[in-house]
Design brief:
The complex is a heterotrimer.
Chain A lengths: L1 H42 L23 E8 L6 E5 L3 E4 L4 E10 L5 E10 L7 E5 L6 E3 L4 E10 L9 E10 L7 H7 L5
Parallel strand pairs in A: 1-9
Antiparallel strand pairs in A: 1-3, 2-4, 4-8, 5-7, 5-9, 6-8
Chain B lengths: L13 H4 L20 H7 L3 H29 L10 H36 L7 H20 L27 H28 L12 H32 L13 H18 L2 H15 L6 H14 L15 H29 L8 H24 L1 H7 L3 H31 L5 H27 L14 H30 L42
Chain C lengths: L3 H17 L12 H34 L15 H29 L7 E8 L2 E6 L4 E5 L5 H4 L17 E4 L4 E7 L4 E5 L4 E5 L5 E5 L5 E7 L11 E7 L1 H21 L6 H20 L17 H5 L1 H10 L15 H13 L11 H9 L1
Parallel strand pairs in C: 1-5, 4-10
Antiparallel strand pairs in C: 1-2, 2-3, 5-8, 6-7, 6-9, 9-10
Helix pairs in contact in C: 1-2, 2-3, 6-9, 9-10
The chains are: A alpha+beta, B mainly alpha, C alpha+beta.
């Protein structure tokens, strides 16, 4: 029986360790979500842009080359907004700070919330783009028929890789479902019946 | 250590606690009641052999269910145009075929073989946790009944492919997706519990004198597989939990609208998914490594390198996941990293193939049914490996990705790979299970039909894919018609010839040529030291393991 | 100046050029430098595999034949040989390194981000492609043009069955064209084998790719990522033209767009709107709402006899212009022009027994969109 006893203890130990590893891996899966965001921001993977404002770094402007920066705005189903940009593309020097106005128009008579989700291409440029101020950092609220102009202030780092000549900034508008305290309001907000 | 344990723990361990007691059928498990009869006996059994049989029967049933889904797909693709089913149902069939084959046919079959054979191969009286074993099996029928029932729900069953990429599987999914997630959770828990049980058994219950490096390769490969399961099934559970929350609780893990990212889904899924692929092939390596030396009557060449190669494949499997995602727009460095790491997997896999071939070299080879399937495995799995190597070349993958070339590749490693190995294992161990040899002529017939069917089905898919046919389409352009015609004929032929397999197994259970304890001349492992058929309780007194039986 | 492996690639590509142009069973050589490089890689790795296969299977079948138990073969007892094992670990590594070098070069070249002559935004939508020529004010959608009758086998299938669209993507040859890719709903994948471009389009994110076509011609491809019911029915057709021809096309296209824009201001008759609306309906709407507006509930509601649609014009317009969030109905605000929206709304309000008699004027739609 002694052998059996130590065997049982061994089984018990193995099971405890396995379950611990198991829970660890389950937690790890969830930890991967923020880790992935960090990873994306560090490497520029997927053109995912940092969603917090960066300070302007005063560095020498590289007058020797021009970078074409394109702006594309896209709407989406379920948000009756129009988003437009003052200019479709501009040419800037690396190191230079630039500003461009985006205009949001709510075509409906109701107040609504939206978010402009940013993406940058090529993704290798992502880490060299500093957004000083951007409407994409937070959700926007527009009253019925409201028109709102918000500037995007950005700077391209001087060390932008040589081979990059064009950077495209794309903003896709998405509706934001505000969870209202009053369930009735919530129903109204989500009143989209197919 | 023993006195510290609370007494109820000995109950968990019933069969070993009564080791050496009653060797008669039954009594030991339920000291309070008589042996349950009929259905209750199977519902409540904690015997590793009975549970092993349940797993195998369940898996065979699901193999046919998944097979019928595949035949619906192949019937629709028999010729261009939409004839039999609507695209919506077609998508449900491809999805269900994948899910059932992966989670309900191949994985439970290996678990069934593990249940039957691991205790016999290491000289243990039963699995370490017999009651847990019963629970992990009975989760499966519940899980897959639920999964299959989604086909009858309004809006239909899962239709987003077995890889269920978000947002097709979240924002745009049918209403039944929540049930799909629940079913997958249950199947996942079942696999995890099975894996814990296997690890606990292998690490603690080997016969006195058996070191780790004395274990048969089937035990080794399963040990490594079980570690993989424990590492990645929780990740799958995490992913589907996130899906569940995205669908039902308004989070946006995978929804760009709320700050999430659909590509994150693919990273998480393939972090699970690639090791999952090896979960379905490593035990197959173990089976083939048992069969080839037996029928070559020569020890396995390079036992130690086989163990290390298996370990290497398992470790590398965590570093290659993004080769499934070469076209999602990864940065150059990531593409290069995943290309190199994927190519590296060819090295340990190659070592295995070379070892098998060298085992045959200067052997004394006979061609019984298990050997036929094992040899077919080596050849056809290697062909699947070659196309895998081609797919690893990232720029070439831009052309191969999501075409029938990929479908051909993974069916070559899974059907004549995993499934042929399972069949080889069944033919190999049937004499031990039933006490009878399988009918040789019928088994031969099953083999030749299978090998023709499998190649006729999957070989033309390489060409269809290279010529530009995407996967998961219910209808196709006219230039793919010939390949699809051949594939469909092959699929029906292959499907029909599996009925022969059922026939052989049923006949073997009912009678046939009597098998001695050591059913195959060249067999060496411990399972051949118990009588055929193996009595319900074996090794209640641990056998003494002689190194002479071992591999080195 | 060529490296040895480049010669190897060239030789293998040229050697297989003749059969591969037919490409009914092999990867097409394609019409870009990248596609040729990829084809070379593909053939090289293929032949490497064939050689390894012949050796390994050769030894295997020799052993199976030579050492048969039935012929009284006696088994040897050896089961280890360190130097052999080291050797067959090392040789594959060398072969792999040999493969990795050209693959890396090809890949690096594909990630070249130098300036392009033309930028095109490709948007995947369930189940069509939208092309926007950035900076040129040209944008249109490209839909499957194979008829329902052909798919159902009620009429003969033509040569380009399932690979034909109403409006192909028109590109110039010999110029670097940059593609920006995204999606409005689920993940799609834009693939044209002969251009060797396959790239996922991901909702909310942008992917980049480029192509420089060497030969004029028509190149066909399909969506390569499962994207829902009609995944198999969203082909891609690229029409590559000589540069001068392309310029002409571009001008014509711009003029047509202007004409259409002027059409917004005038009053349209119901017959005109109905005719135009039917065209738009059949190319855009019928894949979900079906040819006779009968829909495919629950995902795709019926339009024929739809009470809400008949009674609430405003609601109807809103659905078409802004789409339905979280459902398959996209916003057509940016996809269709005001004339097309006005026409298709008028059509759906007056076809299949929906006899409302309403007409919606393009100007009304334009006002609604712009406000």
């Amino acid at each position: 029986m002694a052998a059996d006893g130590s065997q049982q203890a061994g089984v018990r130990r193995t099971v405890i360790r396995s379950v611990a590893a198991l829970l660890g891996m389950f937690a790890f899966a969830f930890a991967l979500v923020p880790l992935y965001d960090v990873f994306c921001q560090v490497t520029g993977l997927n053109g995912k842009v940092d969603t917090t404002a960066k300070a302007i770094i005063h560095e020498e402007v590289d007058q020797s080359r021009f970078i074409t920066v394109q702006f594309i705005t896209r709407g989406s189903a379920g948000l009756p907004w129009q988003m437009s940009v003052e200019t479709r593309q501009m040419r800037v020097h690396p190191g230079q700070t630039a500003e461009v106005d985006f205009t949001f128009t709510n075509n409906s008579h109701q107040e609504s919330w939206g978010r402009a989700v940013p993406s940058v291409s090529p993704s290798s440029a992502t880490t060299h783009l500093r957004k000083v101020s951007c409407f994409c950092f937070q959700e926007q609220q527009l009253q019925g028929d409201e028109r709102l102009t918000i500037p995007l202030v950005f700077q391209l780092a001087k060390d932008l890789p040589e081979e990059i000549s064009t950077i495209t900034l794309v903003y896709t508008l998405y509706p934001v479902q505000r969870i209202a305290l009053n369930p009735l309001n919530n129903n109204n907000a989500a009143g989209d019946k197919i | 250590m023993a006195p510290k344990l609370p007494p109820q723990h000995s109950l968990q361990h019933s069969s070993s606690a009564v080791a050496g007691g009653q060797s008669q059928e039954g009594q030991s498990h339920y000291p309070h009641a008589a042996q349950p009869k009929g259905l209750m006996r199977w519902l409540l059994t904690t015997n590793h052999k009975e549970i092993g049989s349940l797993y195998l029967i369940f898996s065979l049933t699901m193999f046919f269910v998944g097979g019928i889904f595949a035949l619906v797909v192949r019937a629709e693709l028999f010729q261009p145009g939409l004839q039999l089913v609507e695209p919506e149902f077609f998508n449900q069939m491809t999805t269900m075929h994948g899910l059932i084959m992966v989670f309900a046919a191949v994985m439970p079959a290996f678990t069934g073989l593990a249940n039957w054979m691991i205790p016999l191969q290491i000289g243990a009286p039963d699995m370490a946790l017999p009651r847990l074993n019963n629970f992990s099996f009975w989760l499966l029928p519940v899980a897959f009944t639920l999964l299959l029932s989604t086909l009858f729900m309004p809006g239909g069953g899962p239709n987003f492919g077995w890889t269920f990429y978000a947002p097709l599987s979240t924002t745009y999914a049918p209403a039944s997706t929540t049930f799909f997630i629940l079913a997958l959770h249950m199947a996942g828990i079942s696999s995890i519990l099975g894996a814990i049980n296997i690890i606990a058994t292998i690490l603690n219950m080997r016969a006195p004198g058996m070191r780790m490096m004395d274990m048969p390769l089937f035990v080794w490969t399963w040990l490594i597989t079980a570690f993989l399961l424990i590492a990645v099934m929780p990740v799958l559970a995490g992913v589907i939990t996130m899906m569940l929350m995205d669908i039902n609780f308004g989070t946006s893990f995978f929804d760009a609208a709320g700050g999430g990212d659909p590509v994150l889904f693919q990273h998480l899924f393939w972090f699970f998914g690639h090791p999952e692929v090896y979960i379905m092939i490593l035990p197959a390596f173990g089976i083939v490594s048992a069969i080839i030396p037996t029928f070559a009557r020569k020890p396995l060449f390079g036992y130690a390198s086989m163990v290390y190669a298996t370990g290497a494949i398992a470790l590398l499997s965590f570093l290659v996941w993004a080769h499934h995602m070469f076209i999602v727009g990864l940065p150059l460095t990531a593409e290069l990293f995943f290309m190199y790491s994927t190519m590296l997997i060819a090295v340990p896999t190659g070592v295995k193939v070379f070892n098998w071939v060298t085992t045959l070299f200067r052997g004394s080879i006979s061609f019984e049914p298990p050997m036929l399937f094992a040899l077919a495995f080596v050849v056809l799995f290697t062909i699947g490996g070659f196309s895998g190597l081609m797919l690893a070349i990232a720029p070439a993958d831009f052309q191969y990705h999501d075409t029938y070339f990929v479908v051909a590749h993974f069916h070559y490693v899974l059907v004549p790979g995993a499934i042929f190995a399972i069949m080889a294992g069944v033919y190999y161990w049937l004499p031990k299970w039933t006490g009878h040899y399988p009918n040789e002529r019928l088994a031969q017939c099953h083999f030749w039909c299978s090998i023709i069917g499998v190649n006729l089905t999957f070989f033309p898919m390489h060409f269809a894919g290279l010529a530009g046919m995407p996967r998961r389409i219910p209808d196709y352009a006219l230039q793919f018609a010939d390949f699809n015609l051949l594939s469909s004929i092959g699929a029906f032929f292959f499907g029909a010839s599996q009925l022969l397999f059922v026939l052989v197994v049923v006949l073997c259970v009912r009678g046939g040529q009597k098998a001695p304890a050591k059913a195959w001349e060249g067999a060496v492992d411990l399972e051949w030291s118990v009588p055929s058929p193996a009595p319900l309780h074996t090794f209640e007194t641990p056998p003494v393991f002689h190194r002479a039986q071992s591999h080195d | 100046m060529r490296l040895p492996w480049q010669w190897l690639l060239t030789i293998t590509s040229v050697a297989s050029l003749s059969q591969a142009h037919a490409s009914s069973w092999n990867m097409p050589v394609g019409v870009t430098d990248t596609s040729r490089n990829i084809f070379g890689l593909h053939m090289t790795i293929f032949w490497v595999c064939v050689v390894i296969g012949v050796i390994v299977f050769g030894v295997m079948f020799y052993s199976l034949f030579r050492y048969r138990h039935s012929k009284g073969a006696k088994a040897a007892r050896f089961h280890e040989h360190t130097s052999v094992e080291v050797l067959w670990t090392a040789i594959p590594i060398l072969i792999l390194v040999g493969m990795a070098v050209p693959a890396t070069a090809t890949l690096k070249n594909m990630y070249d981000a130098s300036e392009a002559d033309l930028d095109i935004m490709i948007t995947g939508q369930q189940w069509r492609w939208r092309y926007e020529y950035l900076g040129e004010d040209i944008a249109y959608t490209s839909n499957l043009s194979t008829t329902r009758e052909q798919i159902r086998g009620e009429s003969e299938r033509d040569e380009h069955y399932l690979l034909d669209v109403d409006e192909p993507l028109v590109l110039p040859i010999n110029r670097k064209v940059r593609f920006l890719m995204t999606s409005d709903d689920v993940i799609h994948s834009w693939w044209v084998p002969e251009l060797a471009v396959k790239q996922d389009t991901i909702p909310g994110f942008i992917n980049e790719n480029w192509v420089q076509i060497n030969e004029p011609g028509i190149y066909r491809g399909q969506c390569a990522e499962l994207c829902g019911v009609n995944h198999g029915f969203m082909p891609i057709v690229v029409h590559a033209m000589e540069e001068a021809e392309f310029e002409t096309w571009l001008e014509e296209r711009k003029e047509a767009a202007e004409q259409e824009a002027m059409g917004v201001d005038r009053e349209w008759a119901i017959e005109e709107l109905m005719a135009r609306g039917e065209e738009v309906y059949q190319s855009i709407c019928s894949s979900c709402h079906q040819g006779e507006g009968q829909g495919a509930p629950p995902a795709f509601p019926a339009l024929a006899g739809n009470e809400q649609l008949i009674n609430e014009l405003d609601w109807h317009l809103d659905r078409v212009i802004n789409g339905v969030s979280g459902a398959a109905m996209p916003a057509f605000r940016n996809t269709l022009n005001p004339v097309e929206i006005a026409a298709v709304v008028t059509y759906t309000r007056n076809a299949w027994g929906n006899e409302t008699g309403d007409t919606v004027q393009p100007a009304t739609v334009a006002e609604r969109i712009a406000q």
